[in-house]
Amino acid sequence: MQNNISTVLKNLGILDLNPAFSTGNNWGALTAAITIDSVSPVDGKKIARVQVATAEDYETVIKKASAAFLFWRNLPAPKRGDIIRQFAEALRKNKEDLGTLVSYEMGKSLQEGFGEVQEMIDICDFAVGLSRQLYGLTMHSERPSHRMYEQWHPLGIVGIISAFNFPVAVWSWNAALAWVCGNVCIWKPSEKTPLTAIACQHIIAAVFKANGVPEGVSNLITGDKEVGELMTNDTRVPLISATGSTRMGKAVAVAVGARLGKSLLELGGNNAIIISEHADLDMSLIGAVFGAVGTAGQRCTSTRRLIIHESVYDVFTAKLIKAYGQLRIGDPLDQHNHVGPLIDKAAVNAYLDSIEKCKAEGGKFVVEGGLLAGPQYASGCYVKPCIAAVKNDYQIVQHETFAPILYLIKYKTLDEAIALQNGVPQGLSAAIMTLNLREAEQFLSASGADCGIANVNIGTSGAEIGGAFGGEKETGGGRESGSDAWKAYMRRQTNTINYSNTLPLAQGIKFDL
Ligand code: NAD
Q1: Does the active-site annotation cover 185?
Q2: Less CB within 10 Å around the terminal CB: N or C of the chain?
Q3: Per-residue model confidence (pLDDT) at position 82
Q4: Exposure of 375 by Cβ count < 10 A (0-12 exposed, 13-18 middle, 19+ buried)?
C-alpha cells in the first residue's frame, strides 16, 4: 500500500509539500517547530509529518485573505461560478487519487472515499447554478414613488473547521457556496487528516492561478484545536462554520458568540430508525446494517439506535445477528470488506469504554464487540461491530459514541416510538421504516421526529446535495449544502429608493420644517 500511496501523493502533487499554511500557490515556510503526524488507521503507518501553523503564519494568511476579498467580492457571481465549475472538472480528473488518499488517511472504504469526492463535485455543480440565483426579494413600499428591495452581499472571510470523518466533502460544502457568494475561506482541517486537505488546497490553488485570481481566496492552516481557536476568537472572521463534536461546538459557539460573530454548527448525532410492524423487514435490514457499520459507525448520521415494534423485535433481531455474522472486517481499500478501522487508538478506547458502560447499566449484547487481533489488524484500530439490547434512558445511549455500537429498543405504540426517537439531546437524522401511510405522515408531522433530517423507508445515514443538511438541539442548528443554505454565507441588505420629489416618512409621521 505504501508504494501505491507514494504514487497517489505524487499524482496529487503533494509529495514534497510539508506546509503549515497555504494561501494559494504559496506554501508556508518549512520552519514550524511543532508538527503532527498523519498516520493511516488502515495499517498504522505514518504517511507524512505536517507542520502546525503558528500565530505568525495565521497573520500572514489573514492579511492575504483580507486583500483577496477586495478582488473576489467584485468579480460577478456567475464568473465566480465558472471558476468553481473548473474546480469540479479538476476534481473529476483527480477523483481516483483523492478518493484513495481519503480512504487511506481516514480509513473509510474505497467506495466511500470516491463517494466523498463525488459529493465535492456535486456541491460544485450546485454552486455553479446557484451563482446565477442569489435572489433577493422586492417589496411594495407604503410610500408613493418608493422602491424597496433586498440584496445579498458576501460576509468576508469564512473560517471553516472540519472533522476527520468527512475530511474533504464538508470543506467543499462550505467553500463552494461561500466562494460563489463572494467570500474568501480559511480552512482548518482535522489534525487527524491533514494530507487530504493539503491535496484539496493544491487542486483549487491551480484552478485559481489559471484564472488569474490572486492568492488568498482559498487558504489552509494545518494544526490542532489551538489553530482553530485563532480563527474563532478573531473579529476579522465574521463567520465560523464548524463541524465536529458537540463538545467542540459548545466551545466554538461561546468564543464566536462572545464577539457577536456568526457561527454555523454541524455537530454530533444520535440517530434512530423506527422499525414498524408495517415495515418491509428485508429493506429495513439493509438500511439498518449499512447505517450502523458503514464508515465503521463514524458518520454523524450513523444509525446508533433501532426502535423496533415488539411484534417484529425477535424476528428482526435474528436477521440482524445473521447479517452481522456475514460482515467482513479489514482493509477498507479491499473492496470485499464491509467495515474498516476506527480512526485511531483513542477511538478504540472510547468504543471499549462505551461497551463496558453499557454492560454496567444493564445492556445485553446480542452481538459481542471487541478489538480484533492479527496481522491484518496490526494498526490496532479494527473493532467488531456489536449490538446491545438497552433502554433509551441509559446514560451511554444518550451519548454519541463514534463507533459501530448499535442499540436495540422495543416499543408498543408509534407515539411511544417517536418519543423514544426524540428522547436524546441530539437532533440530526431520523427514519421510519413503514409501508403504512398514516404512520409515515405522523412521523414527518409537527408532532413527529424533531430532527433536521427525517426519512421514510431510507436509513439515517448519508444525504445528497440539494437538501439543506444539519440538525437541531445539540447538533447545533446549522444548515449546509443545499436549498437556501447559501444565505448563511451572506449578509442581507434592505434598500429603499425614493424617486418622488418629497420625503414622506413611514407610518405617516409628519415632520415639516
Ligand atoms: P472534534 O470535535 O474532535 O474536532 C473537529 C474539529 O474541531 C477539528 O478540526 C478540531 O481540531 C477542531 N476543534 C476542536 N476543538 C476546538 C475548539 N475549541 N476551537 C476550535 N476548533 C476546535 O470532532 P472529530 O472527532 O474530528 O469528528 C467527529 C465528530 O464530528 C462527531 O461528533 C460527529 O458527529 C461530528 N460530525 C458532525 C457532522 C454534521 O454535519 N453534523 C459531520 C461530520 C462530523
Answers
A1: no
A2: C
A3: 98
A4: exposed
